Amino acid sequence: MPEMFQVLPPVEALKVLFDQLSPNVMTENVDTAEALDRVLIEKLTAPSSLPSFPRSTMDGYAVRAKDTFGATESLPAYLNVIGEVPMGRGFELEVGLAQAAIVYTGGMIPPGADAVVMVERTQKLDAKNIEVLRAVAPGENVIEVGEDVKEGEPLFDSGHILRPQDLGGLMALGITKVTVAARPRVAIVSTGDEVVPPEQTPGLGQVRDVNTYTIAGLAARSGGIPQQKGIIRDDYDCLFSATREALDTADVLVVSAGSSVSTRDLTADVVNNLGKPGVVVHGVAVRPGKPTVLGVCNGKPVIGLPGNPVSAMVVAGLFLVPLLWRLQGLVKPPARQRVTAILAHNIASVTGREDFVQVRLVERESELRAEPIFGKSNLIYTLVKSEGMVCVPLDSNGLHKGERVEVELF
Amino acid sequence: MPEMFQVLPPVEALKVLFDQLSPNVMTENVDTAEALDRVLIEKLTAPSSLPSFPRSTMDGYAVRAKDTFGATESLPAYLNVIGEVPMGRGFELEVGLAQAAIVYTGGMIPPGADAVVMVERTQKLDAKNIEVLRAVAPGENVIEVGEDVKEGEPLFDSGHILRPQDLGGLMALGITKVTVAARPRVAIVSTGDEVVPPEQTPGLGQVRDVNTYTIAGLAARSGGIPQQKGIIRDDYDCLFSATREALDTADVLVVSAGSSVSTRDLTADVVNNLGKPGVVVHGVAVRPGKPTVLGVCNGKPVIGLPGNPVSAMVVAGLFLVPLLWRLQGLVKPPARQRVTAILAHNIASVTGREDFVQVRLVERESELRAEPIFGKSNLIYTLVKSEGMVCVPLDSNGLHKGERVEVELF
């Protein structure tokens, strides 16, 4: 007989789990060059101004702007060229009255000068003299000290996921090391007397392990480090010792449960004995995925997934993904990619439960249509053939053909 | 004096580059478990049917459906229980007339049976006999052989990027190795007499290297393996020998050019001498990023980026990203994440050029607004402070405040 589930909506179930976890984030100090897509766990301000010297944005002549005032093609300003500012070095001379110095894009504006005349707006008279054919304003074609970022200016908040341009911005200021969230190690244990490793040819009644690989993929995409712990028999002692050992060297334990009611109870029993408080949620108002187990054992979160491939993916998306981001210091996981589409068929549901339905996306008459792929939640290929999922919310009893729906891509 | 650019629109420039490349894709054979986010370069069909035996989707009794026809709570069908189908094994007996066998979710349906009665719809009379309280139809609560996928059915086309569920689907069929595109090795050379490594304190007139890191990040996100080749002086011989060496062990060469006109010519000269045909595009109708160099040297693509951080990112996004996907067998790169937003200010442009403007996204009165961040393209922090880019198309002379625009996130 099935046990009575105390079934919580997914959002509430997640809250119950999070409430049992320490708010502390495990961190590590890494090279900025290696920190792409990591979550920054420090608040950074600019240690110095950028640029640290005024720079030219053009190839041309650094001048005192007022020496060019009124200059035109017919009435040019005459300037004396005192030298060339070499790239990557300073300049010993000061640009004085009616003087100019050759500068290149990115080069330093020498003392005395406050603007740059583009080379195209000048005419060379001889090696030492030029005509300026158009006036420049003070600051024209110049990047001022601190124009990019000023010393002490806030750069990043804690919880920022580092993008390619952020690495560049940090390097520009000489911040070559950063404190980021440690990547959570996710131990994945598959159970089931019928489950065999993929490289083995299944005998009669046997199936190959699927969930270890789908869950590892999801964990990796959420910043986790998957640890594949193999397949454990549906036996309390075996499962208990395998999961206890797995938790020792992991930050999160995922048990892909056997799919029958008896083996579901096994996961809950094991979680209750692995550490305190044990199971905190047993059963979630979601389909597929109702027989989900959420637990915490001595500070480490444990997720018991239903054995069906589709249920396992849906539940891992609802709980493992936000959990991994939360362990990396993010209150809200990064938004998954979504598109809006027209629903091609009705989806029936019942209120009081979130339903997740896989859909294929089809472009028809320049309109994106979401075609539900109905199929038993045991079928891995309904996931393979779909491009995303549609959620029927808790308070809805279904979605109608022709409705605009949000499709979360995966 | 600046050279005359033969300026092509970005799409055409990319086509010129692609036309010079071999259509062949370099591949490697990898473990499916390690193939997340890799591009599959083979067409796969199912080597066998899945499941390979009929499975129960419920805990209950495997029966001959017709033996239950007409059964109700008041007039149940009486069946004789001949045994239990163990998980992961076959069953030696055949279910005959008025017989039943205990089955668990995921277990095998024994010979003779064609449906499963849920345990909740039965009543136990004694160890060997049950009452069935509701009829089942043939096939009810059963996954038929091949219901997930049939032997010979197409699974994936070449060019598919492998997702977590795809790995699971492959493993389910015992496909533990796959042929995927090799990850292109991207050698990144920074040039500039003013550029110093980030760990060094810049002297007067010097700046730290930024582009090596932003480009490495972009390359990694596009499936490439960045190889950081350091900073090379603005000198033909130095650049030539450094890039020739870099190309030897890379599939793509990116030169982040010095920003002055003279050093831009340097990149083009070097590319023309590294191999045939050399430079194929010099100058692109894009802002920022006009002085882009695209070349092919003995079959290997070379991209000469403008030195400014923003220009370098824009140009790498337009050319390096699709190039890397193309080298991995994708004609079209995967869609970048986009959102629609209301433009908060006018953006001026000119026709005949694509303009890319960084924007910050701000939620105001439940409406997403895109606020352009105007700034010289030399400023890395305009990229850091923005969440995406808006493109002003080739044939437009600007976008208006209040317009709905597509923002490509980065």
From TrEMBL, chains A, B:
CDD domains linked: MoeA
Gene Ontology, cellular component aspect: cytosol
Domain of life: Bacteria
Biological pathway: Cofactor biosynthesis; molybdopterin biosynthesis
Record field: catalytic activity: adenylyl-molybdopterin + molybdate = Mo-molybdopterin + AMP + H(+)
Domain MoaB/Mog as annotated: residue spans: 187-326
Role: Catalyzes the insertion of molybdate into adenylated molybdopterin with the concomitant release of AMP.
Family: Belongs to the MoeA family.
Protein name (Swiss-Prot/TrEMBL): Molybdopterin molybdenumtransferase
Organism in which the protein naturally occurs: Syntrophus aciditrophicus (strain SB)
Highest classification ranks of the organism: Bacteria, Pseudomonadati, Thermodesulfobacteriota, Syntrophia, Syntrophales
